[in-house]
Amino acid sequence: MIKINKKIVLGILVSSLALSSCNEILDEQPRSGYTVDYFNSADGVTSGVTALYRSLRLLYGNGYYMSATQNGTDEATWAQSADGNFKDLDMTGGATAINSSTFPTSMVWGSVFPYINTANGIIERGPKFNIAESLVSEARFFRSFYYFQLVQTYGGVPLDLGSGELALNISPTTLSKRNTVPEVYTRGIFPDLLKAVNNLPASPRVTGGVTKNVARLFLAKAYLTYGWWLQNPNNIPTYPDAARTDPDGHNAQWYFQQAYDIALQGINTPGSYALQPTYYDVNEGSKDRNSEQMLYADHTASSVFYNESDPVGFGSGWAPDNFAAWMQTWNYTNIKSSKSATSWTPASPITREAAQSLGRPWVRMAPPIGVIKNTFADKTNDSRYDGTFVTTYRGNWQKTGTGLESTTTLYNANNLPVPVGGAILSFLDDDSQLPNIVYPSGGGQNSVGAGVLPGRADWVISPNGISRIVYPGLWKIGTYRTDDPNGLGYPNAGLTRPFPVAKFSEFYFIAAEAAVKGASGAMSARDLINVIRARAEKKKKKKKKKKKKKKKKKKKKKKKKKKKKKKKKKKKKKKKKKKKKKKKKKKKKKKKKKKKKKKKKKKKKKKKKKKKKKKKKKKKKKKKKKKKKKKKKKKKKKKKKKKKKKKKKKKKKKKKKKKKKKKKKKKKKKKKKKKKKKKKKKKKKKKKKKKKKKKKKKKKKKKMEVQQ
């Protein structure tokens, strides 16, 4: 057995959880602590699930945890106000070896075991109270999540899955077996995450709740990390010492393929998650909890404050405050401008403000120069630099509480004026203008050692001038509060925004890395990375607009300068000319008077002539008009006569036609009458003939009768 100072207690804090609405943030009600008896009811078990979400705030948003995970990497180094702990983690010059007493290294160990124990209680007791497997799987997710944090930080750790002598233990213990890395992964992390993937819902139960895809993301990441551990290309030692073999008989390549397949499943079945349109949108404070943020540490439903109180003064700088942004914020309030254009009268153009680009300066961490010169070398096409750092600091002296509320203009570099909201200090994209920058020997007028470029009102610092004292601030997790929009807000208090833990874009990076390690599938590493690269690329239209704006601004500035120079020259000339002009004016006035008189006479004559001409013209016009009228009348009369004649002719023709028609009708009638008469005559004749025949027949009959 290895002696390890391990405290296994139940997670302190918790709450009652509303299970009905998928749009609710967890509603927490603090309690003094959990006992084993607390898990003897369904309410106790469900409250324990809420406590697991609260546990995220102990690490994420905690500046010391961020230091423990980032200092000494290619993302962060120690800054001016850093103490020994920060420097030790950086492992640069003057650092001492990291050991168990190096403060931030113990943060994960001391924070997560109580919540692993809470998860154990939920997993064991949940089925007894008919708690849904989906809810129990949330506990499985958090147990695997924290073991994943532990194994990445310390290597092998004691694996407590809720059985044996440590089951639901509420008292500290100093003796425990340290399991190997393969045991932690294969017995703890993988089984829990596989069950979570199968049983968690596709959509979050509550705002920020874990889902199938959240579990998939961490399962893919765990497979990828374990594959690297098995392969160990750099021969890194592990603790406790263990063979680089998998208990289940799989090799590193099998795990890389699993990581790829699961990550691709997550991409192809996104559910409610999606990439944001731009990199800037991912981190903008007003768009927190967007579709790309899959897991984040958040405040409660009953209080918008991250630390469960009302922080409006100075924050404590300790968990559960969200104060990580302070660590990489430098003393920008030291920048100076002048109240006067003629004599340097120092004033502070920028004051602490609860804005995403400002906040509270702690100066514990800084970006390494490699990030600025190498990682984000292409700042014209890559939007990530502007979406990560504060590159321009703007004046906010008009805000309530600065003492300069009535001042509209301050004077900056080259004694040029700067309006409210104008650029006070800018970090240049590269060192191309370095030969033209004039840096002071010390702090200079601006007091921070920034340089001056000809024609620019803002102080400037090129990448070569960045130090552990002055550097671009970390915008993406910066202070963002809306509870005091009219003034400076509460810049010294903790942030109220959620702190991101996992993002949908990570699926693409995991799958791409696995593909580089030999995994294969529908998308290549290049295809996967290009999706994210395309999103990170600055849009050309915007670039053109910006370039045009810059050109216009430059042109305007040049024009203004030229105008000023011309005005000065003109003023001098005007003074000399004024005296000469006064004398000349008197002479000119006399001449003008004479000329005016002559002109008046000429004008009068001209007017008279013009009037006469006009009269003549009018008369001629009248005559012409009369003639025209007469001609028109004659023409009209002729036309009328012609029309009358035509009408008469037409009438005559019509009459003739009518007469002809009448005659024809009469003839037809006569013919008809004749025909009728003829027919009648014929009929009469026929009748007579018939009568005669009848008479003859009768006579014959009589004769015959007589003869007989």
From TrEMBL:
Q: Which InterPro entries match?
A: H1/H5 (IPR005819), LSDs-like (IPR045109), SusD-like_N (IPR033985), TPR-like_helical_dom_sf (IPR011990)
GO terms in the biological process aspect are: nucleosome assembly; regulation of transcription by RNA polymerase II
Position of the signal peptide: 1-20
List the GO cellular component terms.
nucleosome
Extract one GO molecular function annotation from the record: histone H3K9 demethylase activity
Q: Which Pfam families match?
A: SusD-like_3 (PF14322)
Q: Which residues form the SusD-like N-terminal domain?
A: 26-224
Record region (Disordered): 536-708
The answer to whether the entry has keyword Signal is yes
UniProt keywords (A-Z) are: Metal-binding, Signal
Q: What is this protein called?
A: RagB/SusD family nutrient uptake outer membrane protein
Species per Swiss-Prot/TrEMBL record:
Chryseobacterium endophyticum
Q: What is the lineage of its organism?
A: Bacteria, Pseudomonadati, Bacteroidota, Flavobacteriia, Flavobacteriales
